[in-house]
DNA sequence: AAATCGTGTTTACAACTGTAATCGAGGCGC
DNA sequence: GCGCCTCGATTACAGTTGTAAACACGATTT
């Protein structure tokens, strides 16, 4: 998938990924209603655009459609992460860690987890 | 700065940041000519838009302008990094490290550097 | 049967992006 | 002095994004 998902569209994908099961447009709208003040119409537009982009599928269920993600969140997130690190730090992750560390973007738990990850990587 | 810089615009900012000194539009275009096949006109549009967004400044130098970044790269990059980690990983950096690690996005050097960083953080 | 409701589809519309071409005006060459 | 070159400024124009409203049509309610 080399398709770009916009920020607003991503919100819809997140709802679908979080649900773990096919949702109707109305259900998606409900899921999102919490953080964003979107109208149902807006959600429907997002769903159409995402379908056009091929990142979600819809099966008919009588009157309505049931929408499901067509790509895995971890794939998308991994792809975007690589892109981001590439663009901002020339592909190296350490400068990102350095930058966040310098701005206190890391707490104890995060640090410990990363260390554990790296330890495991070397084994 | 809560201003968004588009991907193409960022290319121009990178040229200015890399130069380390004020550049004319033509110089910026030359810098960029390597990676991107932009016409001088396009570069001029980018410079205008970036000036409108307030992320660069221009001082007159006789006939032409000399453009300089109005924000520091590290500030911008730090800001975007926080935004990204927030959006994709709920603000936690470790899942990003995990994701990249799992896709072999990390080499030995990167790992060593990150470990050194973390060690220093704890002292 | 008529009014209403829920759904997907079509249309809207301004802001932002990518990518330029054109215009107006000062300088330079001859 | 007159044409050409260089600049910034203005205009262009299609595609994407955010945010919906309007529409068409079958289902449900009254």
Overview of this protein structure:
The structure is a homodimer of 123-residue chains. Chain A has 6 helices and 2 strands. The first copy, chain A, starts with 6 loop residues before the first helix and ends with a helix. In chain A, α1 (7-19) crosses α2 and α1 (7-19) packs across α3 (40-53). By secondary structure, chain A is mostly helical. The mean pLDDT of chain A is 95. The interface between A and B is medium-sized, with 35 and 35 residues. Chain A binds a DNA duplex (30 and 30 nucleotides) through residues 4, 6-9, 24-26, 38-42, 44-49, 63-65.
Topology:
The structure is a homodimer of 123-residue chains.
Chain A: H1 7-19, H2 25-33, H3 40-53, E1 56-61, E2 64-69, H4 73-89, H5 94-102, H6 108-122
Antiparallel strand pairs in A: 1-2
Helix pairs in contact in A: 1-2, 1-3, 2-3
The structure holds a DNA duplex (30 and 30 nucleotides).
Quick take:
The structure is a homodimer of 123-residue chains. Chain A contains 6 helices and 2 strands.
Number of DSSP helices of chain A? 6
Oligomer: homodimer
- Per DSSP E runs of 2 or more residues, the count of β-strands of chain A stands at 2
Strand order of the largest sheet of chain A: 1-2
- Tell me the greatest interface: A-B, 35 and 35 residues
